[in-house]
Amino acid sequence: MTTTEPLSLSALNQAFREILETIDPQDLGWSPFKGVWSVALILEHLCVVESSYFPVFMAVKQGNYRGTLLGRWSWLSHKVGAYLFQTMDASRRTKIKAPTDWQPRSSAQSAQVVLREFWEHTERLESELEGFTPEMLSMVIASPASSLLNYRMDMAIQIILAHRHRHLHQMKDLLVLKSN
């Protein structure tokens, strides 16, 4: 699955499930060296990033989302969305530093807590992504990371899925390192 193919949350979740079922819970916190996120930190990062969109999703669905001035320039928001989507391509090995607000919060949680919170979050994400009308999907929103980054709601969803896909590959790479 590459970002040129349509990404499906259910397919991604199945891939996460298959990988996470093979990992010894003791290994969720393993990192090859300082500065490299463990599987637990990757899962936490996904929860932090994706949940930052939930208030935007709710405002859009309730009809009270107010975009930014920059969001009114559709040509710019289209380019920003396309660029962000492209940077999420799982085949790209360029490391991208997450904004401070999107960094994992802790690494001291037990494996059971990390997994439980990830799957609870995943269920919420699935429900949050339901119920958008075509009009809602064409709305321009500001990124929760920066009001300077604006893109269409449908592109935001694709960016979220591509981001999840990118970190799925990061987890696979970690497991290869762990097994060597």
Characterization of the model:
The chain has 180 residues and is mostly helical. The chain has a single domain, classed as Four Helix Bundle (Hemerythrin (Met), subunit A). 55% of the residues lie in helices and 3% in strands. A two-stranded antiparallel sheet has the order 1-2. It is globular, with a radius of gyration of 17 Å.
What is shown here, in short?
The chain is mainly α. The protein has 7 helices and 2 strands.
Range of helix content = 55-70%
**What spatial form do the alpha-carbon principal axes imply?**
globular
- The CATH architecture can be given as Up-down Bundle
CATH fold category name: Four Helix Bundle (Hemerythrin (Met), subunit A)
Largest sheet: 2 strands, antiparallel
Number of helices: 7
End-to-end C-alpha gap: 25 Å
Write out key terms for the chains shown:
Four Helix Bundle (Hemerythrin (Met), subunit A), 180 residues, mainly alpha, single chain, 3% strand
Write the layout of secondary structure elements.
Elements: H1 9-22, H2 39-51, H3 54-62, H4 74-87, H5 111-128, H6 134-137, E1 140-142, E2 150-152, H7 153-179
Antiparallel strand pairs: 1-2
